[in-house]
Design a protein that fits this description.
alpha/beta, 7-stranded mixed sheet, 5 helices, binds S-adenosylmethionine
């Protein structure tokens, strides 16, 4: 078992995604989650991946090709706010958000609270029953706490009859470690 934060998120994603599933990577970045989702959903599934930076698309394409990923993905240079234009309601098994900025890229092009919450609201409508959102929320450093606090406030208000929200903390780790949050559509 890999107890790194990304490893923990990947572990939860693996429990849920099956061959043939439709999945979304809402923050493509360097393509780590796109690759994982591509491997899990297989030849009969599909991954839609979004980012607002050309560099993210280039890095992800290179990563997927290097790993000989199945041709089961589409990479979009578009904001995750628009993901509802690319998938039907109640059709998606897993949507991954890794908030913050592209490692090695422009820190100013980080996710923002208002657009992140809009995209999360759309995500909920795209998820099928038992589908999940896997969120990794960053705070401190460049990004401050504004986005984390806005996201946690929004998550707290989700109807508990419709959604299960499990927030994980790396409790004794210093320097505001990223916070994995799992949302299950009941
Ligand atoms: N999961 C990625 C990986 O495996 O490398 C890391 C993602 S990185 C922490 C966050 C990414 O979100 C950046 O590449 C950034 O460009 C992207 N981003 C910021 N705002 C966005 C938006 N509105 N829509 C889609 N992507 C966005």
């Amino acid at each position: 078992m890999n107890y790194q934060i990304t490893g923990w998120c990947a572990h939860l994603i693996r429990q849920h995604v099956k061959k043939g599933d439709l999945c979304i990577d809402a923050t493509m970045g360097n393509g780590n989650d796109t690759l994982l989702l591509s491997q899990l959903c297989g030849d009969t599934g599909c991954v839609l991946a979004f980012d607002i930076q050309e560099m993210a698309l280039a890095n992800t394409k290179e990563r997927l090709e290097k790993e000989h990923a199945a041709h089961n993905y589409e990479l979009f240079l578009d904001s995750h706010v628009n993901m509802g234009n690319y998938a039907e309601p109640m059709s998606v098994s897993c949507i991954v958000f890794n908030f913050g900025y592209l490692p090695g890229g422009n820190h100013k092009l980080a996710t923002r609270p208002e657009s992140s919450i809009l995209a999360l609201s759309t995500s909920l409508s795209l998820l099928k029953k038992d589908g999940i959102l896997m969120l990794c929320i960053y705070s401190g450093g460049d990004s401050g706490f504004q986005e984390r606090d806005a996201l946690l406030g929004w998550l707290k208000e989700l109807d508990s009859k419709k959604y299960l929200v499990i927030k994980t903390e790396y409790y004794n780790r210093p320097n505001n470690p990223p916070m994995p949050v799992l949302v299950v559509k009941l």
